[in-house]
Amino acid sequence: MGAGTEPDGSSRSDEEWERFLRESVAGAADAPKEPSARARDVAKRLRAEPGRGAEGWRSYTPARPKRRTGWYVVGLLASLVLLVVTFAPGWTVGLFTGGAPDSAPPAAETARPAQAPPAEAARRPTMDEPFRGSPAASWASGAAGITVPEAGAVGRMSAAEVERALARSLDFLVASNLDPGVLRGEHPGKAIALINPHQKDVQTLLETAFRTPGEKNDPLLLFSRFQPSRTHLVGDVVKTRGRLTYQEGERGALQVTADVTFVYPVTRADAGSDDGEIVRTIVRRELVLSWDDPARVITEPGTFSVVSHKYDTTNGGCGAPTGYLTPPFGTDRQADEAATKIDPYDRSTPVGQGEPSGDQCGRATRS
Q1: Phi-psi bin for 122: left (phi > 0), alpha (psi -120 to 50), beta?
Q2: Which residue in 210, 281, 303, 340 has the fewest CB atoms around it within 10 Å?
Q3: pTM of the model
Protein backbone atom coordinates (compact mmCIF):
# COMPACT_ATOMS: atom_id res chain seq x y z
CA MET A 1 0.00 0.00 0.00
CA GLY A 2 1.38 3.46 -0.82
CA ALA A 3 2.30 6.17 1.60
CA GLY A 4 -1.18 7.67 1.49
CA THR A 5 -4.36 7.68 -0.49
CA GLU A 6 -6.68 10.71 -1.18
CA PRO A 7 -10.48 10.26 -0.88
CA ASP A 8 -10.74 10.03 -4.61
CA GLY A 9 -8.23 7.19 -4.61
CA SER A 10 -5.23 9.19 -5.73
CA SER A 11 -2.07 8.51 -3.82
CA ARG A 12 0.07 11.09 -1.88
CA SER A 13 3.78 11.43 -2.33
CA ASP A 14 6.13 10.56 0.52
CA GLU A 15 7.08 14.26 0.90
CA GLU A 16 3.44 15.39 1.25
CA TRP A 17 2.69 12.68 3.77
CA GLU A 18 5.75 13.57 5.82
CA ARG A 19 4.72 17.30 5.82
CA PHE A 20 1.20 16.37 6.88
CA LEU A 21 2.47 14.40 9.84
CA ARG A 22 4.85 17.22 10.89
CA GLU A 23 2.12 19.92 10.83
CA SER A 24 -0.28 17.68 12.70
CA VAL A 25 2.22 17.37 15.57
CA ALA A 26 3.40 21.04 15.61
CA GLY A 27 0.02 22.61 14.75
CA ALA A 28 -0.59 24.92 11.78
CA ALA A 29 -0.05 28.66 12.36
CA ASP A 30 -3.49 29.53 11.16
CA ALA A 31 -5.31 26.62 12.68
CA PRO A 32 -8.24 27.68 14.90
CA LYS A 33 -7.72 27.14 18.62
CA GLU A 34 -10.27 25.43 20.73
CA PRO A 35 -11.79 27.93 23.30
CA SER A 36 -11.44 27.06 26.96
CA ALA A 37 -14.30 25.62 28.96
CA ARG A 38 -14.71 28.97 30.89
CA ALA A 39 -14.90 30.94 27.65
CA ARG A 40 -17.49 28.56 26.23
CA ASP A 41 -19.54 28.91 29.44
CA VAL A 42 -19.44 32.75 29.39
CA ALA A 43 -20.35 32.87 25.71
CA LYS A 44 -23.27 30.53 26.29
CA ARG A 45 -24.60 32.62 29.19
CA LEU A 46 -24.33 35.88 27.24
CA ARG A 47 -26.23 34.42 24.29
CA ALA A 48 -28.97 33.36 26.66
CA GLU A 49 -29.50 36.97 28.03
CA PRO A 50 -32.11 39.15 26.22
CA GLY A 51 -30.62 41.61 23.76
CA ARG A 52 -27.15 40.12 24.09
CA GLY A 53 -27.27 37.73 21.19
CA ALA A 54 -25.09 39.82 18.89
CA GLU A 55 -22.62 41.06 21.51
CA GLY A 56 -19.30 39.27 21.84
CA TRP A 57 -18.09 38.21 25.24
CA ARG A 58 -15.06 40.53 25.04
CA SER A 59 -16.92 43.52 23.52
CA TYR A 60 -18.71 44.70 26.73
CA THR A 61 -18.30 48.46 27.46
CA PRO A 62 -19.30 49.73 30.95
CA ALA A 63 -21.87 52.59 31.00
CA ARG A 64 -20.45 56.09 31.52
CA PRO A 65 -21.70 58.03 34.57
CA LYS A 66 -24.16 60.80 33.64
CA ARG A 67 -22.80 64.31 33.88
CA ARG A 68 -24.70 66.54 36.30
CA THR A 69 -24.72 69.48 33.89
CA GLY A 70 -27.93 70.91 35.34
CA TRP A 71 -26.42 71.41 38.80
CA TYR A 72 -23.38 73.18 37.37
CA VAL A 73 -25.63 75.62 35.49
CA VAL A 74 -27.73 76.31 38.61
CA GLY A 75 -24.61 76.96 40.68
CA LEU A 76 -23.21 79.36 38.07
CA LEU A 77 -26.46 81.33 37.92
CA ALA A 78 -26.64 81.56 41.72
CA SER A 79 -23.10 82.92 41.85
CA LEU A 80 -23.94 85.59 39.27
CA VAL A 81 -27.02 86.66 41.24
CA LEU A 82 -24.97 87.01 44.43
CA LEU A 83 -22.43 89.18 42.61
CA VAL A 84 -25.19 91.47 41.30
CA VAL A 85 -26.83 91.81 44.72
CA THR A 86 -23.47 92.55 46.34
CA PHE A 87 -22.15 95.12 43.88
CA ALA A 88 -25.38 96.64 42.49
CA PRO A 89 -28.06 96.51 45.21
CA GLY A 90 -29.90 99.54 43.86
CA TRP A 91 -30.30 97.93 40.46
CA THR A 92 -31.62 94.75 42.06
CA VAL A 93 -34.17 96.67 44.12
CA GLY A 94 -35.28 98.48 40.99
CA LEU A 95 -36.11 95.17 39.33
CA PHE A 96 -38.53 94.20 42.08
CA THR A 97 -40.00 97.64 42.71
CA GLY A 98 -40.61 98.42 39.07
CA GLY A 99 -38.54 101.59 39.25
CA ALA A 100 -35.33 102.64 37.60
CA PRO A 101 -32.16 101.55 39.36
CA ASP A 102 -30.84 104.01 41.94
CA SER A 103 -27.32 105.38 41.81
CA ALA A 104 -24.70 103.51 43.77
CA PRO A 105 -24.00 105.07 47.18
CA PRO A 106 -21.09 107.49 46.85
CA ALA A 107 -17.95 107.06 48.91
CA ALA A 108 -17.66 109.16 52.06
CA GLU A 109 -16.63 112.73 51.31
CA THR A 110 -13.12 113.45 52.56
CA ALA A 111 -12.32 116.49 50.38
CA ARG A 112 -14.13 119.03 48.26
CA PRO A 113 -15.47 117.26 45.14
CA ALA A 114 -14.25 118.37 41.72
CA GLN A 115 -17.74 118.64 40.20
CA ALA A 116 -21.44 118.36 40.89
CA PRO A 117 -23.04 114.89 41.03
CA PRO A 118 -24.52 113.64 37.72
CA ALA A 119 -28.13 114.34 36.87
CA GLU A 120 -30.73 111.80 37.95
CA ALA A 121 -33.68 110.57 35.91
CA ALA A 122 -36.69 112.83 36.46
CA ARG A 123 -38.89 110.98 38.93
CA ARG A 124 -41.56 112.50 41.10
CA PRO A 125 -41.08 112.09 44.86
CA THR A 126 -43.72 110.21 46.81
CA MET A 127 -44.61 109.86 50.47
CA ASP A 128 -42.92 106.47 50.52
CA GLU A 129 -39.91 107.65 48.48
CA PRO A 130 -39.49 111.37 49.18
CA PHE A 131 -35.92 111.45 47.77
CA ARG A 132 -36.75 109.71 44.50
CA GLY A 133 -35.26 111.42 41.45
CA SER A 134 -32.68 113.27 43.56
CA PRO A 135 -28.93 112.74 44.09
CA ALA A 136 -29.77 112.62 47.79
CA ALA A 137 -31.53 109.27 47.24
CA SER A 138 -28.14 107.55 47.43
CA TRP A 139 -26.78 109.71 50.27
CA ALA A 140 -26.50 108.52 53.85
CA SER A 141 -29.05 109.54 56.45
CA GLY A 142 -28.52 111.86 59.39
CA ALA A 143 -25.10 112.01 61.04
CA ALA A 144 -23.92 109.02 58.97
CA GLY A 145 -23.53 111.31 55.94
CA ILE A 146 -21.02 113.60 57.71
CA THR A 147 -17.43 112.39 57.48
CA VAL A 148 -15.41 112.79 60.68
CA PRO A 149 -11.63 112.51 60.10
CA GLU A 150 -9.29 110.45 62.21
CA ALA A 151 -8.01 112.54 65.10
CA GLY A 152 -4.39 113.42 65.63
CA ALA A 153 -2.55 115.67 68.07
CA VAL A 154 -2.69 119.38 67.19
CA GLY A 155 -0.75 122.03 69.10
CA ARG A 156 -1.51 121.78 72.79
CA MET A 157 -4.23 119.17 72.25
CA SER A 158 -3.64 115.42 72.26
CA ALA A 159 -5.27 113.08 69.75
CA ALA A 160 -7.85 112.09 72.37
CA GLU A 161 -8.75 115.75 73.02
CA VAL A 162 -9.07 116.42 69.29
CA GLU A 163 -11.31 113.38 68.96
CA ARG A 164 -13.61 114.71 71.71
CA ALA A 165 -13.74 118.14 70.04
CA LEU A 166 -14.69 116.56 66.71
CA ALA A 167 -17.39 114.50 68.39
CA ARG A 168 -18.82 117.60 70.10
CA SER A 169 -18.74 119.51 66.81
CA LEU A 170 -20.76 116.71 65.20
CA ASP A 171 -23.16 116.81 68.15
CA PHE A 172 -23.80 120.48 67.42
CA LEU A 173 -24.62 119.79 63.76
CA VAL A 174 -27.04 117.07 64.79
CA ALA A 175 -28.67 119.18 67.52
CA SER A 176 -29.03 122.24 65.28
CA ASN A 177 -30.03 120.68 61.94
CA LEU A 178 -31.26 117.13 62.53
CA ASP A 179 -33.02 117.11 65.90
CA PRO A 180 -36.74 116.36 65.24
CA GLY A 181 -37.91 118.89 67.81
CA VAL A 182 -35.75 121.69 66.41
CA LEU A 183 -36.96 120.89 62.89
CA ARG A 184 -40.52 121.30 64.20
CA GLY A 185 -39.66 124.79 65.44
CA GLU A 186 -38.75 124.03 69.05
CA HIS A 187 -36.03 125.98 70.85
CA PRO A 188 -32.58 124.41 70.14
CA GLY A 189 -31.46 124.28 73.77
CA LYS A 190 -29.04 121.37 73.38
CA ALA A 191 -27.25 123.04 70.49
CA ILE A 192 -27.00 126.42 72.22
CA ALA A 193 -25.52 124.75 75.31
CA LEU A 194 -22.45 123.82 73.21
CA ILE A 195 -21.70 127.46 72.30
CA ASN A 196 -19.32 129.39 74.55
CA PRO A 197 -21.63 131.43 76.83
CA HIS A 198 -18.94 134.13 77.11
CA GLN A 199 -19.01 134.86 73.35
CA LYS A 200 -21.09 138.04 73.62
CA ASP A 201 -21.85 138.72 69.94
CA VAL A 202 -23.22 135.23 69.34
CA GLN A 203 -25.19 135.23 72.59
CA THR A 204 -26.80 138.54 71.60
CA LEU A 205 -27.72 137.11 68.21
CA LEU A 206 -29.33 134.09 69.83
CA GLU A 207 -31.31 136.15 72.34
CA THR A 208 -32.72 138.40 69.61
CA ALA A 209 -33.22 135.84 66.86
CA PHE A 210 -35.96 133.83 68.50
CA ARG A 211 -37.76 136.89 69.83
CA THR A 212 -37.67 139.24 66.82
CA PRO A 213 -36.10 137.53 63.77
CA GLY A 214 -34.35 139.83 61.28
CA GLU A 215 -31.77 139.67 58.53
CA LYS A 216 -28.85 139.95 60.96
CA ASN A 217 -30.48 138.08 63.80
CA ASP A 218 -32.13 135.07 62.20
CA PRO A 219 -32.26 131.59 63.80
CA LEU A 220 -31.68 130.17 60.32
CA LEU A 221 -28.09 131.44 60.46
CA LEU A 222 -27.32 128.43 62.66
CA PHE A 223 -30.46 126.28 62.88
CA SER A 224 -32.86 124.55 60.46
CA ARG A 225 -36.48 125.11 61.53
CA PHE A 226 -39.92 124.69 59.94
CA GLN A 227 -43.18 126.20 61.17
CA PRO A 228 -45.37 123.20 62.11
CA SER A 229 -48.63 125.00 61.34
CA ARG A 230 -47.47 125.45 57.75
CA THR A 231 -44.99 122.65 56.93
CA HIS A 232 -44.58 119.00 57.81
CA LEU A 233 -41.54 116.85 57.23
CA VAL A 234 -42.16 113.73 55.14
CA GLY A 235 -40.98 110.75 57.15
CA ASP A 236 -38.21 110.93 59.71
CA VAL A 237 -35.16 110.79 57.42
CA VAL A 238 -32.95 113.75 56.48
CA LYS A 239 -30.28 113.07 53.87
CA THR A 240 -26.84 114.57 54.42
CA ARG A 241 -23.47 114.85 52.75
CA GLY A 242 -20.40 116.66 53.99
CA ARG A 243 -17.34 116.53 56.17
CA LEU A 244 -15.46 117.92 59.14
CA THR A 245 -11.85 119.08 58.90
CA TYR A 246 -9.52 120.51 61.54
CA GLN A 247 -6.31 122.46 61.94
CA GLU A 248 -4.49 124.52 64.51
CA GLY A 249 -6.16 127.88 65.02
CA GLU A 250 -5.14 131.13 66.69
CA ARG A 251 -3.89 131.37 70.29
CA GLY A 252 -3.54 127.63 70.73
CA ALA A 253 -7.07 126.82 69.63
CA LEU A 254 -8.27 123.84 67.61
CA GLN A 255 -10.24 125.08 64.59
CA VAL A 256 -12.90 122.74 63.21
CA THR A 257 -14.62 123.48 59.89
CA ALA A 258 -17.91 121.86 58.92
CA ASP A 259 -19.26 121.85 55.35
CA VAL A 260 -22.52 119.91 55.19
CA THR A 261 -25.59 119.80 52.93
CA PHE A 262 -28.95 118.83 54.48
CA VAL A 263 -31.93 117.72 52.36
CA TYR A 264 -35.40 118.00 53.95
CA PRO A 265 -38.47 116.56 52.15
CA VAL A 266 -41.56 118.49 53.23
CA THR A 267 -45.22 118.95 52.38
CA ARG A 268 -48.04 121.28 53.40
CA ALA A 269 -49.26 120.79 56.93
CA ASP A 270 -52.84 120.49 55.64
CA ALA A 271 -52.00 118.19 52.71
CA GLY A 272 -53.56 114.75 52.39
CA SER A 273 -51.55 111.68 53.27
CA ASP A 274 -51.40 110.43 49.67
CA ASP A 275 -51.71 113.35 47.26
CA GLY A 276 -49.69 116.07 48.99
CA GLU A 277 -47.13 118.03 46.99
CA ILE A 278 -43.59 117.22 48.15
CA VAL A 279 -40.85 119.83 48.05
CA ARG A 280 -37.24 119.23 49.01
CA THR A 281 -35.67 122.10 50.94
CA ILE A 282 -31.88 121.99 50.70
CA VAL A 283 -29.59 123.80 53.15
CA ARG A 284 -25.81 123.83 52.88
CA ARG A 285 -23.89 125.14 55.88
CA GLU A 286 -20.26 126.07 56.42
CA LEU A 287 -19.31 126.65 60.05
CA VAL A 288 -15.92 127.40 61.57
CA LEU A 289 -15.74 126.53 65.26
CA SER A 290 -12.89 127.31 67.66
CA TRP A 291 -12.12 125.06 70.59
CA ASP A 292 -10.21 127.63 72.59
CA ASP A 293 -7.36 127.33 75.05
CA PRO A 294 -8.95 128.21 78.43
CA ALA A 295 -5.61 129.71 79.49
CA ARG A 296 -5.97 132.36 76.77
CA VAL A 297 -9.72 132.72 76.12
CA ILE A 298 -12.56 132.84 78.61
CA THR A 299 -14.65 129.78 77.88
CA GLU A 300 -16.43 126.89 79.55
CA PRO A 301 -15.35 123.23 79.32
CA GLY A 302 -17.00 121.40 76.42
CA THR A 303 -17.99 124.58 74.53
CA PHE A 304 -16.68 126.27 71.39
CA SER A 305 -16.70 129.78 69.95
CA VAL A 306 -18.31 130.45 66.56
CA VAL A 307 -15.69 131.95 64.24
CA SER A 308 -17.92 132.22 61.14
CA HIS A 309 -21.18 130.88 59.73
CA LYS A 310 -22.45 130.84 56.14
CA TYR A 311 -25.29 129.00 54.49
CA ASP A 312 -27.10 128.57 51.18
CA THR A 313 -30.73 127.55 51.01
CA THR A 314 -32.93 126.58 48.08
CA ASN A 315 -36.66 125.92 48.21
CA GLY A 316 -36.51 127.56 51.62
CA GLY A 317 -38.60 130.61 50.84
CA CYS A 318 -37.95 134.25 49.90
CA GLY A 319 -39.00 137.44 51.57
CA ALA A 320 -38.73 138.90 55.05
CA PRO A 321 -37.17 136.59 57.66
CA THR A 322 -39.65 134.73 59.84
CA GLY A 323 -37.22 132.53 61.76
CA TYR A 324 -38.42 129.49 59.76
CA LEU A 325 -37.70 127.86 56.43
CA THR A 326 -40.76 128.46 54.25
CA PRO A 327 -40.79 126.03 51.30
CA PRO A 328 -42.80 127.24 48.30
CA PHE A 329 -45.85 125.15 47.38
CA GLY A 330 -48.16 125.44 44.39
CA THR A 331 -48.41 129.01 43.12
CA ASP A 332 -45.72 130.11 45.60
CA ARG A 333 -43.22 128.12 43.58
CA GLN A 334 -44.08 130.14 40.49
CA ALA A 335 -43.40 133.34 42.44
CA ASP A 336 -39.86 132.09 43.04
CA GLU A 337 -39.15 131.86 39.30
CA ALA A 338 -37.30 135.18 39.39
CA ALA A 339 -34.88 133.93 42.04
CA THR A 340 -31.30 133.14 41.10
CA LYS A 341 -30.94 129.56 39.89
CA ILE A 342 -28.42 127.36 41.66
CA ASP A 343 -27.63 123.68 41.81
CA PRO A 344 -28.01 122.83 45.51
CA TYR A 345 -26.15 119.53 45.08
CA ASP A 346 -23.01 121.11 43.66
CA ARG A 347 -20.45 121.00 46.47
CA SER A 348 -17.45 121.74 44.26
CA THR A 349 -17.27 125.43 45.28
CA PRO A 350 -17.32 127.10 48.73
CA VAL A 351 -20.62 128.22 50.20
CA GLY A 352 -21.74 131.53 48.73
CA GLN A 353 -19.05 131.72 46.04
CA GLY A 354 -20.86 133.30 43.12
CA GLU A 355 -24.22 132.10 44.42
CA PRO A 356 -26.90 133.41 46.78
CA SER A 357 -25.96 133.04 50.43
CA GLY A 358 -27.56 133.73 53.79
CA ASP A 359 -30.35 136.28 53.41
CA GLN A 360 -30.34 136.03 49.62
CA CYS A 361 -32.74 133.73 47.82
CA GLY A 362 -32.00 130.98 45.34
CA ARG A 363 -34.17 128.64 43.26
CA ALA A 364 -32.96 125.09 42.78
CA THR A 365 -32.29 123.89 39.24
CA ARG A 366 -33.02 120.43 40.64
CA SER A 367 -34.15 119.16 44.01
Answers
A1: beta
A2: 340
A3: 0.71
